[in-house]
Protein 1
Amino acid sequence: MKLLLTDSGVRNASILAALVDLLGKPIAEANALCIPTAGYGSPYGDPGGPWRFISGRSPSPMTELGWKSVGVLELTALPSIDKERWVSWVREADALLVNGGDALYLCHWMRESGLAGLFPSLHDTVYVGLSAGSMVLTPRIGEDFVGWKPRTGDDSTLGVVDFSIFPHLDSPDCPDNTMAEAERWAAGIKGPAYAIDAQTAIKVTDGGVEVISEGHWKLLNPAVPASAPGAVEGAPQESNRGAAAGRRLVD
């Protein structure tokens, strides 16, 4: 997959341009599936959150970008559906738009549904994550962001990329998500991590990692070796411009 890991959706022209570049065609010619599942697992969530995400009424732009078509892929429903049917839906989509909410709940259902096992074969699919929808692809989220608890009891996630993400940096909605807190959190992660704000996304392709930002971000723990996309030697480590039982995520 080609990845666009956003903090708060496609918030600016730079992130939008990165999305179009990954798609290789205009958004108006691309078909998307949106995945609202994480919104149900968040301790701060309510039924309105997934509806706003699906209907394009969320403050975090994803489904309302002018796609040729948008369908809904609810992961909790997939185990009761013939696998060949939903796999064909996923393979036919140009993009997967993955809602925020609770990253560990989302991780559980990505595995339980079988979607995570499909990821390695989706070579041309663009995965667009929002908050927890981005964090779920990292190796771990850190104890600060644990809300829903899996049977394993830990904070590990899918590990598609080898860096972690501290989201909603300096957001008015998440007053605890300061740079000082991000640095404290990163010390516990003990691996490369990015602290990003609402105007920032991380673009990941076979060629490596690129931070797309009109806001503020910082690469934390850059000295930690990385075998896959993550802390790249010589890469910028901070932008020039400038949430406990789980810290709050977008839902």
Protein 2
Amino acid sequence: MSSLYPTPAARPRGRSGAGGPPGAGPAGRLEQGVMADRAPQVISLSLTSPEDMFVLAQTDLFSEYRNFMTGLEYCISVLRSRPPRGPVRIELSLPSDQLQEGMNQRIARTLDRYCDHRIAYNQRERRAVRLDGVFSLWIGIPIVVLGFLLVIVKGSIVGSTGNANLVLDSGGWVLVWVGLWFPLDTLLFTPLSYGRENRVLERLRRASVVVEPHPTMKP
């Protein structure tokens, strides 16, 4: 058995001209040229089985090849922590008894399906989070109104000067901030993490996969 399986053929990116192969159009050739000029971001993984790429099996916790997160979780974490540049190359090391012909193509296809499901899930969660922000305005707006009322009428309650005036003024603005902070954070900022992860998943689904034996197990 060879120590390195061939990298699977690149998946189609965009539409080509009628009847032409994927990437045959000007846009496809330009994208391929740009990607070819960039060095790939290599992610190296050492797994006990191909399934560990997607789910953790109940195995020996003290094995030197044991991971405590799935290979996909590790890949997503690595790509999120790096600037988004260049293609992605995943290098998997497996025990010799786990190697099969065409293993890299099988992993690549499963990776593509996983990314499709995860992207759809993130899109639903992003919409759900924004709906949470909209519904939270039912509580936030009354708090904001109460805060503004304290700021406006503080002078008629405790006078225009003094510590009591300062307390009511500061308390009113705090209520305004509390009433707006969670709805605005939920509407504007929390959904950004889902969009960022989806961009990582789009890169991951186009990654090339190489499978080889563990270095210590090579013949």
Protein 3
Amino acid sequence: MSRTFDLPRAAAALDRRAFLRLAAAAAAAGLLPTGCGGVPETLAPPATLHLAVLSPRAYATLNAAGACIVGPQGAALIERRTVDVAALADQLLSRSPAIARPLSQGLAVLEYGVWPLVAKVQPFTSLSEPARDAVLADLERSRIETKRALFAGVRALVLSTFYGSPATRLLSGYPGPFGFGAVTIADGMEG
């Protein structure tokens, strides 16, 4: 499996038909939740944040998944909200309506989908970090293409927003865009 993150391609794999088939199977099995409780306070969006595309639940789900995907140092940045992956993703998705819908639907499946669709019986945001890691690992390694596409879409969204944030440059060693701020174009030409 390729380890690159191509957001439009991952979103295309989560097309409406695949999502509806997945949701119909869960509904037929009686697995869809009937109510919506609140998200954990540590994952909920700040009261001052206006979300254009993501719901508060999708915001929480994306930040929870992001903390698992980017590793311990990156998770600390997300938990402290130094990097707000979900807020950045909401801005990105508001400018990309073609991928906003399938990725929002994918986040709903990640949050609410239950076993056997997704390897869990509780909402994703209510799981412990090791349990979230296990759910994401199951999606990534599944033999079912739709589950792998769900992981790829979430991973692509997390990585493109996380590593696009200036606060992550120390983790990646990337000095920033050349020709802006303290990084000159000449810095980029050295080598």
